[in-house]
Amino acid sequence: MIGQTPIFESAPGFIRVSADTTTVPIYVDGTLMGHTPLSNPIPVFEGVHHISHHPPSIQDPFLSYGKVESAKKIFVLSGDTVNVHLNTVLLQSKVNRANQEFRMTNYAGVGLSMLLLWQLWVLSN
Mind listing the pLDDT tens digit for each residue in 31-48? Predict the structure, then answer.
């Protein structure tokens, strides 16, 4: 057909995604592709792709600012199939640990601030 080009000018690459739990949403480059288990591999252009189970607009702050890595960055060649496994339970435990460390750091900061204010109050009297 004249004037129409195929979607893929060269052979597409494929990404086969699995996860440790079912009904996990799968995002490729920020676009929802479905929920696990996915029966068919996802066709993509050759190049770098980001695979995640978190939508790019709604994320935990520890994921957004890089404290915990949530997306897998892969390179797909034309005609190749890349297998990706998302360990969502491990990721959630890392996020929980980062939240706990953040809270402990805040408690220590508040405690030291109160100690400093108390010392200043004692010295001023």
Answer: 888 888 888 899 998 889
